Amino acid sequence: MLISTVGIIIFCKDVIAINILIIYLCKFIYKICVLFGRGSSLPGKIALKLRPDILKSAAKKFKVIMVTGTNGKTTTSAMITNILRLDNKSVISNNTGANMIDGILTCFIANYGKSGWAVMETDEAYTRVITEYLKPEFIVVTNVFRDQLDRFGEIYTTWEKIKDAILKSPESKLVFNGDLELFAKIDFKNPVFYYGFKNGAGEKKVNAENAFCLCCGERLTFNFITFSNLGDYYCENCGFKRPFLSYTLDEIIEQTTEGTKAIISGVPVELSVPGVYNVYNALAAFALADLAGIDKEQIALGLSTQGSCFGRNESIKVDGSSLHMALIKNPTGCDQCIDAITLYSDPCSLLFMLNDNWADGTDVSWVWDANFEKTAGMQYSKVLIGGMRRYDMAIRLKVAGLDEKKFVLLEDDNQILESVSDCKGKVFAFCTYTAMTGLRRTMYNKGIVKDMWK
Amino acid sequence: MEINIVHLYPDLLNTYGDLGNLWILRERAKARGIDVKIHNVSVLNDINECDLLFLGGGQDFEQSLVIEDLIKNKKQYIKDYIENEGVCLCICGGYQLLGEYYMSAAGEKLPGISILPIRTEAGHKRLIGNIIVQGENEIYVGFENHAGRTYIGDLKPFGKVLSGHGNNGEDGLEGCIYKNTYCTYMHGPLLSKNPILADELLIKALSKKYGNVTLNPLNDYYENQAKKAVLMRALPELCER
What is the DSSP string of B6-26? Predict the structure, then answer.
């Protein structure tokens, strides 16, 4: 059957017919992959090889919401998806972190035949490839922070890539984080909506990333900083300042390791995910949903029923222990996870897993820019350390002031799971991407988790 | 004993965890009962007491802000310090800034402070990845990530490239050493996996101040294992030694 289909593709002259055939062929391959329990971008890869512009045909019937940025893509996408679904909209989403072109294409192929909204978490480097073929209804950019610099170069380079993507889609409505200076100096034709914090509880501080005026180079002044270099900034020299915010976080009422109660643009919301970074994600989702015409009460409901998604502050039972997984991939995101987890003041154990595969970032030096010092104050009984670069992690934690006598260096996932279950209590895990997916696969094979990709 | 470490432009030049180098120096000195003072010196600030000078790397935008201040306010001090055999560690952008000029990624020619006869041309492809070099007495491992191609003329290199790209990907050399100034593209941070080098810097800085200083050994098990992990991947045969 495969051979005959390929034969038809080669001999058929009708472009549209070819594309549809390829899509169905790849959908078939997708179903086989699912049958064997492999979440994979293979169908997308094959389709791309056959026709580079296939995305255009595959996504034709969808209104696309593209979500990009260094941190918060997955959670923001999941929040948007949840809000739209609760409002009975038909929604598809690449919700397993397969956010490069082949993963996105695979999602469209798998859902070919349906229509409605498509919430696409998109890797920053691929945004301009995507907008080459589809024109999203909305483009949400959560932030641009220092991320795996080996892959993206500088933050300015990443931002240039996203700007390129936007220039190719001048009709898309833009939803931007207004608290990030980088996003204020723009010159797009698109309608832009900013969100941000009305007031901040954070302290004033400087940060090497870009606390300098992009217009005149002067040091920026902040009325407040929420974290990293996000906040209400202005330049005393040239008057450059934070743009008008269409959506605001008015007040944070309560924060725990379980979630945050807050008021967004006058609407009380109860977020079921912790940390200030998730408040930003919720703001982005709130803005998007409001612009998409969803009722505000409905948005609040969607945000409050948002569960944790794949490896983002997820809790898993391992024998007598409960493993609380947080994905870490760059200093800013990692610090936010640390801030959320260090709210926990009872006895617990810690697990750190550092890998340096391409998806993790091949440069592990970023762990020195994250504030692991803060975890030294927790009531931990053990510090489990694993991953391909576990010794680098051990050095980092030693310098951060964690008690070396409590370090346990572990060679593989089996040893890690054994040690986790020996902890008999809460274990907070900080894992890079492939360390987390690897551990999750081991847990799936052992029957500890039911779904590999969820 | 006391050591004063000056961190130049910590708010502008601090990418790739370079700050870690200072913490490692601090911890290793403290473990030997040496008092450590870290002085953060940025735009408009003066350098006062200094036994060890550290200059890290930054992005092009930040580096352009640094140059102006370096030339205007600090060039003479740093020049005298280096010529006087002061101990200095410069990484990535900090390395480039000591030279005659460097070309930014955007193709702009930016002046350095011309203390060393080195020049940095713009490269098309970034040179990225784990790097292993043979120094004078020791093998060093780290991670490099730079677009600039640096040429060091007749200066002594920091090491010869065993695996990776080095200064320019052509001549097999990495970094440079002039008197007690060490320049390199290696971060990771550099000193986290090369404890011998960290101690060498401390010994030189303290000896200059107090006369011949020796340091008692520390338990470097993690450090040596982290180094071995990098060696094992690229040059497993070296680990046999």
Answer: EEE-TTTS--TTTHHHHHHHH
> Is the CB of B192 less than 8 angstroms away from the CB of A392?
yes
Whose tokens are 């340091």? That residue is B215
Alpha-carbon gap: A370 to the closest alpha carbon of chain B (Å): 9
Q: What is the dihedral of CA B42, A330, A265, A226, to 10 degrees?
A: -30
Q: How far apart are CA A13 and CA A167, in angstroms?
A: 33
Cβ neighbours, 10 Å, residue B235: 14
Cis peptide before B189 (omega within 30 of 0): yes
Residues of B whose CB is below 8 A from A212: 12, 61-62, 65
Cβ-contact B52, B87 below 8 angstroms: yes
Q: In what order do the strands lie in the sheet with B87-91?
A: B35-41, B2-8, B52-55, B87-91, B181-184, B176-178
Burial class (CB in 10 A: 0-12, 13-18, 19+), A103: buried
Q: Do B20 and A396 touch (CB under 8 A)?
A: yes
What are the residue ranges spanned by the domains of chain A? 54-304, 312-445
Chain A residues in contact with B186 by the CB 8 A cut-off are none
Q: Does A391 touch chain B (CB under 8 A)?
A: yes
Residue B17 to residue A153, Cβ atoms within 8 A: no
Residues 6+ apart with CB under 8 A from A140: A65, A66, A67, A68, A69, A76, A80, A174, A175, A176, A284, A287, A288
Question: Is B41 in contact with B8 (CB distance < 8 Å)?
Answer: yes
User: Do the beta carbons of residue A59 and residue A129 sit within 8 Å?
Assistant: no
pLDDT one digit per residue (tens) for chain A, 454 residues: 555 555 555 555 577 788 888 999 989 888 888 777 666 788 888 888 888 899 999 999 999 999 999 989 989 999 999 999 888 899 999 866 689 999 999 999 999 999 999 999 999 999 999 999 999 999 999 999 876 555 556 788 889 999 999 999 999 999 999 999 999 999 999 999 999 999 875 555 544 345 788 888 888 888 888 888 889 999 989 999 999 999 999 999 988 877 899 999 999 999 988 888 899 999 999 999 999 999 998 899 889 877 655 555 668 999 999 999 888 988 888 888 898 889 888 999 999 999 999 878 899 999 999 999 999 999 999 999 999 999 999 999 999 999 999 999 999 999 999 999 999 999 999 999 889 989 998 999 999 988 765 5
Of A208, A367, A395, the CB nearest to B14: A208
Contact B17 A367 (CB under 8 A): yes
Task: Tell me which residues of A are annotated as active site.
Answer: 363
A161 three-class SS? helix
Residues of B within 8 A of A399 (CB-CB) are 20, 23-24, 27
Domain A312-445, CATH: 3.90.190.20
Specify the DSSP element, H or E, that contains A431: strand A426-431
Q: CB–CB of B16 and A392 under 8 A?
A: no
One-letter amino acid for residue B167 of the chain: N
Q: Which CATH number fits domain A54-304: 1.10.10.10, 3.40.1190.10, 3.40.50.150, 3.40.50.10420?
A: 3.40.1190.10
Structural domains in chain B plus CATH codes: 2-240 (3.40.50.880)
Q: Which chain B residue is nearest to residue A367, measuring alpha carbons? A: B17
Mutation site for B-interface testing, chosen from A185, A212, A220, A365 by largest number of B Cβ within 10 Å: A365
